[in-house]
Structure formats: structure tokens, C-alpha cells
């Protein structure tokens, strides 16, 4: 993460120096670079041992990550009184003196991730941070640090003396956790305990009335009830990503009436009777991510309490629904449903019943019976759909009326299928639609299929085995007049005839010789002409013979 951030900063600075507008500040031959306005500088990864004197004292944002300053004294940042955001990721800092940031009353975000001071003792840092009002405090470490650093309960007590809204302790390990460990965290709003070796949280944690955002990714909880979520009744966001094999149990989330966002992705979750008991009580839930889990057998009305859901992600989670059941029928606010690679039963026409507000539907990687989308299909239930993803569904054909009920459709991905026809009949409105038919088996496109494409519409036919002979002249002619309606033209090339294979379609200038009408005239009129001449000659000969 931090490395990437550094790269980003460097990329940005490179760009800025190209513009010649950036003022550079140098220290011992190394240059810090101004990023935006007068207020933001990056000195990322310059091997600096001190803060350059030449940095303006008015600066507000300083990325000083990946340098080597070893310790922070009261004087280190005393000149930079306006500092708001300070990134000291991996700066080899092992000591933080008391009052180290006493001169920086506006400090809002302080990042100390990956510094060896964590191996000294967290209380040292916390004493050093006394009086700091930073809104966001990222201490944590990197995953690759050989020994995970233990946090004994008494160490966290020092947090009582700092006021900060967000604390990140990722990759540190707690030893001897008790309810008093968390006693001082009551002022915190956001707590990140990613990969801290937790398998349960103690009960009786004091009423964490301010904590709204709890990140518990990559821990070892076996059962959601072990987290004792009743201690956090004001949570609005909870993330439990990458828990190895989590059992959701029944009612473990029931006290989280304010929870809006729940991420349970990649956590080995499986259930044979999902989901109303598991998500009971989550009456404010808007976002639920269940992607990359095991199999779920989903009941009718599976999200009974979660009527405010707006986004549901089932990607790569095997979704089993008994025939003709309507699992989502009460989710009238759902706007996005991702069922990609979920083995969804697309022949169940009731699967999507009730999703009146659905705008985005991702069905990528699901099969349709015989490879055909029939005119009566599950999509007729979602009339407000704007984005439909049907990539990699092994489709060979789409019925003419398949999408007629979807009058708002604006973006349709049908790439990576086995379609041989480019047909626009199935779509209700062709004035403002993006149709992606890339990587199919389309050769010839009749003119009537492209005639209706107008306004802002765009089609993508790249990577199809397109024919560039006179058989396809109608489309080629249309294309030359409508280049602006084609996406990915550089990858749209001829496959046949051999002489043109690989040539971009827009480069092909085909002259298909004598127009058909002329040929017809010639074919019909020539024998007539011959017959008429013969008759004339015969007549003349006859006259001459008579006159003799
Ligand atoms: C908090 O600060 C006070 C002095 O301001 C000190 O006496 C006390 O020990 C500190 N508490 C912790 C837990 O560090
Ligand atoms: C926590 O505090 C809230 C209000 O601040 C209160 O309604 C609730 O009963 C308290 N819960 C416990 C377990 O003390
Ligand atoms: C759900 O989680 C997966 C994996 O963590 C992530 O890639 C995906 O973007 C999430 N879905 C949404 C809609 O945020
Ligand atoms: C699905 O149907 C089978 C038999 O038809 C039944 O045993 C099972 O309980 C049903 N599952 C659900 C979730 O309704
Ligand atoms: C599911 O699809 C949606 C919409 O295309 C996307 O935003 C989301 O990230 C996808 N989820 C995963 C896990 O890729
Ligand atoms: C379109 O939807 C309406 C009700 O939503 C339904 O009566 C009609 O049969 C649907 N059209 C098709 C072609 O299925």
C-alpha cells in the first residue's frame, strides 16, 4: 500500500515537473517536490535524514515516507506549524520524544506505519503523542515485519491521554486481551485491527458509544458471535474480510441496528439456510458483500430484515435457490446486484422478482439454458435496469424481444460469448446505448441492424472474425460514415478474405465493382437485345430476298 502510494506521488511529481511549474526544494542534492499549490510537498524515498530547512513553514501536507530520521524531537516539526497531514511511513523512527508534535496544533492525520518504534513499546509512542489532536492516527506495521509486535493491555491505556478519532493498529498482535484493553478506546470513531491475531473480543467492553467504524479483517474469528458485537451498538461500518472460515450463526449481528455497511467477503462462509436468521436485526443495512465465499442455499425472502439494502455482492459465491422461490422479493431499494460466477439459476424466472429499483445487474459467467436468452426470461422482472453485464455466459443467441421490457438500458456487455449475429432488435431504444459485442463469432452485419444506431450510441465489435468482402459491404459503408459510433476500432479488424486478414476495418476501401442493378439489367436485357438484332437481320434478309 505504502509503496504504491509512494509510486503514485512520484508519478504525480514527474508529471508536474514536466509542466515546469513545480518549485523544487533541495536538501543535500535531493529534491522534495511541490505537489499541489503551495501547501503540499512530497519528499518520498529520498534517503533524507532531516526535514529540509527550505520547506516553506506554511506547508500543510507533507509526505516524508521512506526516509530515515530515527527519532522525533520537539524541534523536528516545530517550524512547520500549519502541518495537517504528515506521512512518516517507514522512516526508521524508533523514538518519539514527549511533546514531539506539541507545535502542530492542526495536525489531523499522522501516519507512523512500519516504524521500528513499534518494537520499542507502544506506550512510548503514545506518550510521545500526548496532546496530539490528530484526527487520524495510523500506527500499525507492515505484514512483512518478521515478528508481529505484541500489544500488552497496559500499553493501550496510554490512548486515554490522546484524543484521536481514528486509530490503525494493523498487523500488531494483542496479548492477554481483556475488557479493560479497550477501556480507553471510547473516544475513537474508527478502529482498524486488521491482522491482529484476534479470535474473539472480550464481553463487557465499556460502551463504545463513539465507535462507528470497526475493521477486523484477516483475523481468526470462527464464529461471528465471538466478536460480541453488542458492545458496539453504534457501528455503521463493519468489515470482516478474509476471515479464514467464519460461521455466521444466528442473530450475532442483531444489536447493530445502525449498521449500514457489512463486508464479509473472502471469509469461507457457507450456509445451507441463508440469510434471514444470520442478518436478523440489521434494519439499516445498505451494503452487503458476500463475494468469494462458499455455497449458500438461499430461502424465499432471504433478507427479511434488510429491506434497505442497496448493494448486494455474491460474486464467486455459489448461490442455490430452490425453483420458483423469490429470495429478493422485498428488496425494493436494491440498486446493484452482482451475481457473477455464482452458478445462478437463470431459468428461474422469479429469481429477480421484486427488484424494482435495480439499476446494475452483473450476471457475468453464468450459463443460460442452451445458450439462448428467450423472450420470456428473468430480466423482465427488473424494468429499471440500466447496466447489464452478460459477459462470458456462453451465449449463442438472443431472442428478438429478450430485453424489450428494459426500456432504460444504457450499457450492455455481451463480450466473450459465442454470438454469431449482431442483432439490435432485442433492445428497446438505440439512441443512447453502449453495446459491447467484443470477442464473439460475428462475421457479417446486415445494414438494418446498424441503421437504428444513432445519437450517443456506441458499439464495440473488436475481436470478432469480421468479413471484409463485398458480402459485408453494407456494414463497411455504414462504418465509414459512423466512425464516432465505434469503440475500440484499433482492435476491430478483418478476418476474411485472406488478403485482408488483420487489416483494420476503417482502413478497408472496398470497391464492389458494377452495382447489382446494372448486372440485373445486363443479364435480362442482353438476350433480348441479341434476339431483337437477330430478328432485324432476318427481316432485312427476307426483304432483300423478296425484292430479288
Ligand atoms: C495520562 O497523563 C497523565 C498526565 O497528564 C499521567 O499522569 C497518566 O499516567 C497518563 N495516563 C496514561 C495511561 O498514560
Ligand atoms: C450505551 O450507551 C447508550 C447511550 O449512550 C445507552 O443507551 C446504552 O444503554 C448503553 N449500553 C450499555 C451496555 O451500557
Ligand atoms: C466486494 O468484495 C470484493 C473482495 O473483497 C471486492 O473486490 C469488491 O469490489 C467488493 N464489492 C463491492 C461492490 O464493493
Ligand atoms: C429446497 O427444496 C428441498 C426439496 O425440494 C427442501 O428439502 C429444502 O428444504 C428447500 N430449501 C429451502 C432453502 O427452501
Ligand atoms: C460486482 O459487479 C459490480 C458491478 O459491475 C462491481 O462494482 C463489483 O466490484 C463486482 N464485485 C466483484 C467482487 O468484482
Ligand atoms: C414486461 O413486464 C410486464 C410487467 O412488468 C409484463 O406484464 C410483460 O409481460 C413483460 N413483457 C414481456 C415481453 O415479458
From TrEMBL:
LRRCT domain location: 464-513
Record keywords, A-Z: Leucine-rich repeat, Membrane, Repeat, Signal, Transmembrane, Transmembrane helix
Native species: Pleurodeles waltl
Residues that span the membrane, as ranges: 516-541
Cellular compartments per GO CC: extracellular space
Pfam families, A to Z: LRR_8
Residues making up the signal peptide according to the UniProt record: 1-22
Cross-referenced InterPro entries: Cys-rich_flank_reg_C (IPR000483), Leu-rich_rpt (IPR001611), Leu-rich_rpt_typical-subtyp (IPR003591), LRR_dom_sf (IPR032675), SLRP (IPR050333)
Protein name: LRRCT domain-containing protein
Amino acid at each position: 500500500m505504502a509503496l504504491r502510494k509512494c509510486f503514485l506521488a512520484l508519478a504525480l511529481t514527474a508529471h508536474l515537473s514536466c509542466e515546469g511549474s513545480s518549485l523544487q526544494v533541495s536538501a543535500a542534492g535531493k529534491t522534495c517536490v511541490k505537489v499541489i499549490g503551495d501547501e503540499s510537498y512530497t519528499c518520498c524515498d529520498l534517503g533524507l535524514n532531516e526535514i529540509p530547512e527550505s520547506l516553506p513553514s506554511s506547508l500543510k501536507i507533507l509526505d516524508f515516507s521512506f526516509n530515515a530520521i530515527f527519532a522525533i524531537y520537539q524541534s523536528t516539526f516545530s517550524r512547520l506549524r500549519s502541518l495537517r497531514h504528515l506521512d512518516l511511513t517507514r522512516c526508521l523512527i524508533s523514538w518519539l520524544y514527549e511533546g514531539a508534535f506539541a507545535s502542530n496544533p492542526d495536525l489531523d492525520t499522522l501516519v507512523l506505519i512500519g516504524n521500528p518504534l513499534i518494537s520499542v513499546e507502544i506506550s512510548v509512542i503514545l506518550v510521545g503523542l500526548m496532546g496530539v489532536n490528530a484526527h487520524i492516527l495510523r500506527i500499525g506495521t507492515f505484514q512483512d515485519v518478521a515478528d508481529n509486535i505484541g500489544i500488552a493491555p497496559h500499553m493501550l491505556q496510554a490512548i486515554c491521554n490522546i484524543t484521536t478519532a481514528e486509530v490503525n493498529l494493523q498487523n500488531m498482535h494483542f496479548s492477554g486481551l481483556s475488557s479493560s484493553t479497550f477501556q480507553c478506546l471510547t473516544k475513537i470513531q474508527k478502529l482498524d485491527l486488521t491482522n491482529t491475531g484476534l479470535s474473539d473480543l472480550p464481553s463487557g467492553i465499556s460502551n463504545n458509544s463513539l465507535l462507528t467504524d470497526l475493521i477486523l479483517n484477516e483475523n481468526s474469528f470462527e464464529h461471528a458471535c465471538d466478536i460480541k458485537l453488542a458492545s458496539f451498538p453504534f457501528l455503521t461500518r463493519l468489515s470482516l474480510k478474509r476471515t479464514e472460515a467464519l460461521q455466521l450463526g444466528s442473530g450475532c449481528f442483531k444489536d447493530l441496528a445502525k449498521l449500514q455497511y457489512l463486508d464479509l467477503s473472502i471469509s469461507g462462509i457457507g450456509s445451507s439456510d441463508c440469510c434471514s436468521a444470520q442478518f436478523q436485526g440489521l434494519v439499516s443495512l445498505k451494503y452487503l458483500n458476500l463475494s468469494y465465499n462458499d455455497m449458500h442455499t438461499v430461502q424465499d425472502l432471504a433478507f427479511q430484515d434488510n429491506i434497505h439494502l442497496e448493494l448486494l455482492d455474491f460474486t464467486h459465491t455459489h448461490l442455490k435457490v430452490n425453483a420458483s422461490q423469490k429470495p429478493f422479493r422485498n428488496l425494493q431499494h436494491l440498486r446493484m446486484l452482482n451475481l457473477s460466477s455464482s452458478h445462478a439459476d437463470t431459468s428461474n424466472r422469479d429469481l429477480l422478482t421484486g427488484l424494482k429499483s435495480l439499476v446494475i445487474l452483473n450476471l457475468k459467467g453464468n450459463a443460460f439454458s442452451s445458450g439462448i436468452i428467450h423472450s420470456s426470461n428473468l430480466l423482465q422482472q427488473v424494468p429499471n435496469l440500466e447496466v447489464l453485464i452478460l459477459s462470458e455466459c456462453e451465449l449463442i443467441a438472443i431472442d428478438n424481444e429478450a430485453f424489450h421490457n428494459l426500456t432504460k438500458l444504457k450499457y450492455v456487455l455481451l463480450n466473450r460469448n459465442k454470438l454469431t449475429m449482431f442483432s439490435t432488435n432485442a433492445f428497446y431504444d438505440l439512441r443512447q446505448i453502449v453495446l459491447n459485442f467484443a470477442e464473439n463469432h460475428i462475421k457479417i452485419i446486415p445494414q438494418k441492424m446498424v441503421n437504428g444506431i444513432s445519437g450517443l450510441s456506441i458499439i464495440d465489435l473488436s475481436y470478432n472474425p469480421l468479413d471484409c468482402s463485398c458480402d459485408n459491404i453494407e456494414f463497411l459503408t455504414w462504418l465509414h460514415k459512423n466512425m464516432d459510433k465505434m469503440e475500440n476500432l484499433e482492435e476491430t479488424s478483418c478476418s476474411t478474405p485472406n488478403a485482408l486478414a488483420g487489416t483494420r476495418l476503417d482502413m478497408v476501401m472496398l470497391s464492389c465493382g458494377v452495382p447489382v442493378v446494372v448486372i440485373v439489367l445486363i443479364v435480362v436485357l442482353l438476350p433480348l437485345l441479341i434476339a431483337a438484332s437477330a430478328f432485324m437481320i432476318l427481316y432485312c434478309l427476307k426483304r432483300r430476298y423478296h425484292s430479288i
